[in-house]
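We modelled the chain as a single entity of 331 amino acids. Its sequence is:
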Amino acid sequence: MLVTGPNGAGKTNLLESLHVGTQGFSPRTRADAQLVRFGRDAARVALRGDRAGVPVELEVTLELGSGKRAAVNGARLRAAEQLRSEVATLVFTPDRLVVVKGGPGARRAYFDRVLGRLSPARSGLSAEYGAAVGQRNAALRRVSRGLSSREALAPWNEQVSRLGAELVEGRTEAVELLRPRFRERAGELGLAAAELAYEGTAPTAAELEARTDRDLERGTTGIGPHLDDVGVLAGERDLRAFGSQGEQRLAVLALLLGEAELLEERRGVRPLLLLDDVLSELDPERRRILADRLRAGGQALVTSASANALPGEPAQTVTVEQAVDGTSRAA
């Protein structure tokens, strides 16, 4: 589906609402209040479709001061973010280039989300590990101030070591599964010799104990997967430092397309793809390649200010216009 209309008409808002309605949160902000229109105290997204031929209805309601509610086929969920385990949605926005061009934290967060989508049972693993590291850091500060003994670090050393090992194992598995599909899709888009590199190692409890003095000086845990990075490469070039913005864009697209294929294999259903302003910096040949790949399966929504930006005939075209009162209208 091609979503077209002039700049500022609300194309991105439409994609954002679809992400909120299928995942329970915005890809743009974690501040739910920013999703409610100025002057209003509530917002609602209701979607109807099918999943593997079975009808599905999704609803997310946001009320200022009352939080967020979500339901699937009329059954209320405990938390809106549980929608992620019901429906798979992947999104590309221009700011997603941070996955390649940003610091290690952006890539860690991205691949931890990939792990959660591939293995929902491990979706909270990164947060659990981060909480354990936070508790160890707090214990380090208490020890350094004389408010606690070094022995108080022992249980947190064990916790950080155990959860760190699980996180490294999960990240390694996710990268290994995604790597061949990333290579193929990147090569198809013209990014040669694309590669993912991850060599994380979790510290043992003994290693954490051995560096206690150094960690006490800094007040933080100085080893562990919270400091790891995942290399996104083209040949021997790290695309973060030595890639053009065009190559970085192709790499992010290849990651998304590769993960979409992987999720389809795992879940039996192609994820919904939301691609915002993905065509603006692609040459005509790469636009054609991307269009052919999107038509190969699943549902994808692509936004563009130009109705002719997507090669070939889209299955459906939606035009977004801004009404006199400032709201957006799709036709």
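As a brief sanity check on the tokenised model: The domain at 1-88+271-291+298-331 is CATH 3.40.50.300 (Rossmann fold). DSSP finds ten helices and 13 strands in the chain.
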